[in-house]
Amino acid sequence: MAKTIIVSNRLPISLRHRNGRFEFKPSAGGLATGLGSIYKSGENIWIGWPGNTVEDPEQRAEIILELHELKMAPVFLTKKDVEEFYEGFSNETLWPAFHYFTQYMVYNPEHWEAYKRVNQMFCEAILKKADPEDTIWVHDYQLLLLPKLLRDALPNATIAFFQHIPFPSYEIIRMIPWRKELLEGICGSDLIGFHTYDDMRHFLSAVGRITGLSSESGYIQAENRIINVDSFPMGIDYGKFEKQAKSRKTQNIVKNFRNQVGDSKLILTIDRLDYSKGIPQRIHVFHELLKKHKDLHGKISMIMIVVPSRDKVQSYKELKEEIDLLVGRVNAEYSTLNWVPIHYFYRGFPFEELSAFYSMSDIALVTPLRDGMNLVCKEFVASKTDRSGVLILSEMAGASKELQDAVLVNPNDKQGVIDAIYQALTMKPQEQKARIVSMQYNLKKYDIFQWVKVFTDRLAHVKKKQAELVSK
Ligand code: GDG
C-alpha cells in the first residue's frame, strides 16, 4: 500500500547535546500535532533535519535508529549547510523577500548553490524511503526546489506543497535572480497550498509571468499535468488550548502571576524574535500611549515575550539590541517602585505558563508587519474560556482574514493602534464576549485536524481529476 511521507526542514523534535550524549525533545507545535495522525500511522514517516549538527558517523547511526522508533528519518546538515542554506539563502534571501523586507535581502550565489545542494540532499533522503506511488507532502520555503526534484525522479508520486509564510507580489519575486528555478521547483507538486487567497493570487501571477505557465480557476496547466493552487488557512489544536486554560494547573499559575503583577490591565505580546513581527514598532506605540494617557500610569502593563530565534543572523542580532534598548528606555522613563510598564522576557515558557499568560491577559496585541498566518492570536482567543478579553490584530497577518471580530489595525498607523488599545481598554464586557464567542466558534470548527483533512481530501481530488483527464 502507498504510504505518506511528510517533509519539512525541521523534524518535529529537537536534538540537544547533553553530557556527551544526544537527547530528543518532541515539538509540541500545532503542525506536529496536526500531522501526528498521518506520520505516526502505518508505514508513514516524517523526514527532516533534527536541528543540530552531528559529524560523528557512530552518533549519526545511533540517531537514525532512535528516530526510526519515532517514525522519523533525519537529513544531516553540516555546519556549512546550516550557515549557507538555512541562515543564508532561506533566512537572508527568501524570508525577507517573502515578508516584503527587501532591504534585508542578500543575493549570494554561494548561498544559492547551498540551497540547491541541500534540496538535492533532501530529495536523495526521500528517494531512499519512497515508492513510486507514495504521497509526499513538502512544507515551507526552505524546500521550494524539492517538489520538482521529486517529480523528475518519481513521475507518478502524489506530491503536495504547503507554504507557511506569505507569498509576495510578483514585483518582489522578480528581484530574486533565481526566481524561475524556484517557481518551477514548487510546480513539481500536484497541489500547492497557502494560508490566504492573496498569497495564492500572487503565486499564480508570478508563475504566469515568470514561467509562462497559464492558469484558470486555480488550476495551472503544466506540460502534461494540471496543478491545483488554493488557500488553506491553518488552524490550531483548539481543544488543547481550551482544556489547558481551564485546568487547575494553569489557573493556579494565573493566581500566582496575578499576585505578582497586581490588578493592572495586561497587554500580552508573544513573538519569535523577527523583524516581520513589528516588535520595536509596538514598543513605540506603547511609549506613545503612556505619554498621551497619564491616567493609565500604574494601571496598565505590557507582558512582552520574545522567543529567541535565528540569533546568528546579523539583522536578528541588531533587532535584539534595538528591542533591549527601547524597553530599557520606556521602563527607565515610567517605572515606579511598584509598577513596571513592560515586563520583558527574552525566552520561551512551558506550555502551562504560556496558557496562563493567555488566560490572564486583558488584551493580546498582535501587530506583525507581515505574517503568513500567526497562530498566537488564535491561541489567545481559544484560551479565553471566560469569554472576556480583546484581540487587537494586524491586517497584515493572514489570520486577520478569518478573525474579523478582532479589533483590526494597520501596524504602520501608530495613532490607529493607540486608539485600538484605548478602545479595547474601554470595551464593555458584553461586546468583548460577543466578539470572542464568534471567533471561538470559527476556530473550533476549523482547527488543525480539519485543516489536515481538507488539504488531504483536496489532494486526493486533484489526483482523481488528473487521472480522468489522462483517460479522456
Ligand atoms: C510560521 C509563520 C504561521 C511562542 N512562544 C512560546 C510558544 N510559542 C509558540 C506559539 C505558537 C508558535 O510558537 C508561533 O507561531 P506563529 O504562527 O505565531 O509564528 P511563526 O513561528 O513565525 O510561524 C506563521 C506559522 O508558521 C504556521 O503556519 O502562522 O505566519 O511565520 O504556536 O504558541 N510556545 C511555548 N512557549 C513560549 O514561550 N510553549
TrEMBL record:
It catalyses: D-glucose 6-phosphate + UDP-alpha-D-glucose = alpha,alpha-trehalose 6-phosphate + UDP + H(+). Keywords: Glycosyltransferase, Transferase. Signal peptide: none annotated. One of its GO terms (cellular component) is cytosol. Its EC number is 2.4.1.15. Pathway: Glycan biosynthesis; trehalose biosynthesis. One of its GO terms (biological process) is trehalose biosynthetic process. GO terms for molecular function: alpha,alpha-trehalose-phosphate synthase (UDP-forming) activity; trehalose-phosphatase activity. Homotetramer. Belongs to the glycosyltransferase 20 family. In the C-terminal section; belongs to the trehalose phosphatase family. This is Alpha,alpha-trehalose-phosphate synthase. The chain holds residues 1 to 472 of 724 of the full protein.
